[in-house]
Each structure stands twice: as structure tokens, then as C-alpha cells.
Design brief:
The chain is α/β, with parallel strands linked by helices. It is built from 14 helices and ten strands. 38% of the residues are buried.
Length: 334
């Protein structure tokens, strides 16, 4: 049996669609509970969820003060009673039944669904999957959104026995840290080559909106990642760390310094970018960009930062944002 956890915040326009997709596309006799954690919504999310919970005894609605998606998921985990746990975001949909696959693979510790798995080994090793989460495995694996918790099934016993949790201090990268912690306790990983999840991408998503705490988040993320001590089990981990630092650096620039909502003009943006590039681990990552295998666009940006052409980097990010806003809403079947 499976428990489904749905964190929801101001999801009045999507939560009904999300719940309908679960009720219509998943075998109800294999679902033990659908746990909705309302993260202090101020719209009609609460009323809609209560209507659905009155329709089905399996839908359990809980409300908490606004603490973020990690705290909401953690709240949901504490209420899980079934053997398997599946996470669904309130603005997405389930488009395929995953419960039969779960019942078939009784010995699995982690089950991951994606249509791309039709092209790879159905049972990759733990090391290969860990490298994929760090973007250092095959291209096929990197496309499967391994650094998210949706479109996957987790064993409740593994989560509880090892006290695995989502870090409430991190809003970008928290799924990756959770999965890296989880996979350390997995012996049998199964990949199913089918699409079960429809991801909706909007301008208001966390990857596009202004994040005042972007730098604090990335530093906290790097700290927790280093505490996993992956260097002892992964070859060339130093190079991977450098790439992760570059990724974090450009997230900080895109979501904070070069974002239209940044509080300041060009002078303040250049000052902030200069300060960011002077601290560890970003300072070393910029200097060593030519020594690691990094995407061409990131390499060019690192060279510009190393040459202190901050104004040009800012311009590139501003132009990139115009392209992002040209597509306001879309979805992708995983």
C-alpha cells in the first residue's frame, strides 16, 4: 500500500486537478492515504481540500503555519502509515498508475519512473545513480529529474529508520540532498520505463522567481553536501564539487543579483556579484573552470567572471530572463 504526500500553498487553481488525477488514474485499492499538508494558504485551498476529504476517507487534510515545502513534506512523512511513500506537488498531475509496479517489485528499496528508462538498464547500481544525481553519469540518466522527489516511490521504513528529512533551511537543492541521503541506504534500485507524472512549469516557480536568500541557501546547501562525505565513494569528486559550486553561483546570480526585483541598480549588482565571486567555494570554481568538464555556456560565464566583466554577465542573465518569460506556462510528462 502507498501513502501519497501533497504539500500545498495557495494552490486553489490546481489542487482540484491534482487530486482528480490521483483519484482517476491510480488504483484506489492500493492507496492507503492521500495526505495534504496545507502550508498556511491564504486563498481557497483549504476549502477545496476539505471538500475532497469529505468525498474520500483516504484523503487526510492538515494545515500548518507557513514554513515552506520542506517542512510540509516532513509533516506529511510523520503521518505516513503505509509501506511506500510517493510525493506529488499540488500544481502537478499523476498521469499513470504506479501502484501495480510497486506491488510487482517487492524487493525494491527505491523505484523511479521515467519514460527515458526505456533506453537504459532497469537496475542501475547505486554508484551510477549517485553520479547521475550529481550530473556526472550518462545523458539519459541526467534527463530523469533524479534530483526531485516526484515520480518516485520511497520505502517508509528506510526514511524512518535512518531519520531522513528535508532541510527546512534550504529551498533549492533540498530534494537532491534528500535523495543522496536516501540512496545511501538502498541496495535495490528499480527504474520503470513509463511516464506517470505531469510536471507543470510556470513563471512563479521557485527556479524563476526572485530569491532574496539565494546566497544563504546555496552556502547552506554546499555545507550539507560536504557533510555527506561523498568523496570517499565517488571517484573524481573534487571535480564534481567544482561543477556544483558553479551551478550554485549561477543560481545566485540568476535568482538574486540579476533578477529584476533586486534592490539596486547596476553599481549595486556589480558589487554584489564581485563579493559573491570572492568567497569559497565560488572563487575556486571560477578559477578552475578550465580544468573541469563543464557546459560551454557555464565555462564562458566563468571566464567572464574571472576577468571581472560583471556587467556583461549581468546583461547575459537579463537577456536570458526575457526568453524565460516568453513562455509563461507549460508542462512536461516525465
Amino acid at each position: 500500500m502507498t501513502s501519497i504526500i501533497i504539500p500545498a500553498y495557495n494552490a486553489e487553481s490546481t489542487i482540484g486537478r491534482c487530486l482528480d488525477s490521483i483519484l482517476n488514474n491510480v488504483a484506489q485499492d492500493r492507496i492507503g492515504q492521500i495526505i495534504i499538508i496545507d502550508d498556511g494558504s491564504t486563498d481557497q485551498t483549504s476549502q477545496i481540500c476539505k471538500i475532497y476529504s469529505n468525498r474520500s476517507k483516504k484523503i487526510n487534510y492538515f494545515r500548518q503555519n507557513n514554513k515552506g515545502v520542506s517542512a510540509a513534506r516532513q509533516n506529511g512523512i510523520s503521518r505516513v502509515t503505509e509501506e511506500w511513500v510517493v510525493f506529488v506537488d499540488a500544481d502537478d498531475e499523476i498521469i499513470g498508475d504506479f501502484t501495480e509496479d510497486i506491488s510487482i517489485h517487492k524487493d525494491a528499496d527505491w523505484i523511479i519512473f521515467s519514460q527515458i528508462f526505456n533506453k537504459i538498464d532497469a537496475k542501475p547500481s547505486r554508484e551510477e545513480m549517485t553520479l547521475a544525481m550529481l550530473n556526472k553519469a550518462s545523458l539519459e540518466l541526467n534527463k530523469t529529474h533524479l534530483n526531485t522527489v516526484w515520480s518516485k516511490a520511497y520505502r517508509r521504513e528506510i526514511i524512518h529508520k535512518n531519520s531522513l528529512h528535508f532541510s527546512s533551511d534550504i529551498y533549492h537543492g533540498e530534494d537532491m540532498l534528500f535523495n543522496l541521503n536516501y540512496i545511501m541506504h538502498c541496495e535495490n534500485i528499480v527504474c520503470i520505463g513509463k511516464s506517470i507524472y505531469r510536471l507543470y512549469i510556470t513563471q512563479g516557480s521557485a527556479t524563476h522567481k526572485f530569491q532574496n536568500g539565494a546566497i544563504k541557501n546555496e552556502l547552506a546547501f554546499n555545507k550539507e553536501l560536504s557533510e555527506l562525505n561523498l568523496g570517499g565513494i565517488i571517484e573524481d569528486y573534487d571535480e564534481i564539487q567544482q561543477q556544483i559550486a558553479l551551478d550554485g553561483l549561477f543560481i545566485c546570480i540568476g535568482q538574486y543579483i540579476s533578477h529584476p526585483d533586486f534592490n539596486g541598480g547596476m553599481t549595486e549588482r556589480i558589487k554584489a556579484m564581485k563579493e559573491l565571486c570572492s568567497i569559497s567555494p565560488y572563487k575556486d570554481a571560477i578559477k578552475k573552470a578550465s580544468q573541469i568538464t563543464t557546459p560551454k555556456k557555464q565555462f564562458i560565464l566563468a571566464v567572464l567572471l574571472n576577468k571581472k566583466l560583471y556587467w556583461l554577465v549581468n546583461l547575459i542573465f537579463r537577456l536570458r530572463r526575457l526568453n524565460i518569460h516568453a513562455v509563461s506556462h507549460c508542462y512536461s510528462d516525465i
